[in-house]
Amino acid sequence: MNLPRIIAFASAIVAVALVSVTWTTLAQQPGTTAAATTSAPVRVALPKPRAEGGMPLMEALKKRQSARAFADRKLSDQTLSDLLWAAWGVNRQDGRHTAPSAMNRQEIDVYVAKADGLWLFNPKTHDLTLVADKDLRALTGRQDFVKDAAVNLVFVADYSRMDRSLTETDKAFYGGADTGFISQNVYLFCASEGLATVVRHLIDQPVLAKAMGLRDNQRITLAQSVGYAPAGE
Predict the structure, then answer these.
(1) CA distance 168 to 166
(2) For the purposes of burial, counting CB atoms within 10 Å of the CB of 127, is it exposed (0-12), middle (13-18) or buried (19 or more)?
């Protein structure tokens, strides 16, 4: 084998090794999966939300409450679909939502932590995108019960969608206020459907943000556990 062929063969070996190392590094990053590192992320369609019926508003307000105990029972796909639509779904042809946002920036993202992984809710297409294929429920709060809830919603404000003239204090204020509107929608939906829920801020935010793979300009605002109450409660 002549010298040029030897050099070409060695270069090919080095290139393969570099690709292997890069793939291994990406796979080991917190909050990433093989699905998340490819050009085609895993997406799961949700059933069409049932936007009619339910409990009368005044009765739902009467029944609204917080709960801190959850049964080992999953939400059906239909119930999850209805929950996410009530929380932050699109309810008009112009793309606006069931909850308001300051200056219509729509800066809040709703992440869904379930036993089968962490998912991002896409309101416009009403589906879920896989973010991490691991159960992160226990990281969504410091209380023991969070790991038992069927779903833990994690609300994240994306500061990059806000007006650049806003201060960090303003961004935190608007992100918190807009999250509150979404959270109350969740409360009223749960009251209507007989589900247990509680909104929370006792979170190890740096740890959770790292596990979720959030950027520096994304901020966790609140988390909310949703599920079924234990029998007899």
Answers:
(1) 7
(2) middle
CA 181 to chain centre: 16
**Residue 57: how many other CB atoms lie within 10 Å:** 11
Q: How many CB atoms lie within 10 A of CB 93?
A: 6
Pairing state of beta strands 151-158 and 196-200? unpaired
Provide the β-strand partners of residue 196: 227
Amino acid at 51: A
3-state SS class at 213: coil
Nearest CA-CA partner of 70 in 111, 109, 114, 131:
114
Give CA–CA dist 111/120, Å, rounded: 4
Query: One digit per residue, pLDDT tens: the chain, 233 residues?
Result: 454 454 454 454 444 344 343 434 434 444 444 444 556 889 999 999 999 999 999 999 999 999 999 999 999 999 999 999 999 999 999 999 999 999 999 999 999 999 999 999 999 999 999 999 999 999 999 999 999 999 999 999 999 999 999 999 999 999 999 999 999 999 999 999 999 999 999 999 999 999 999 999 999 999 999 999 998 77
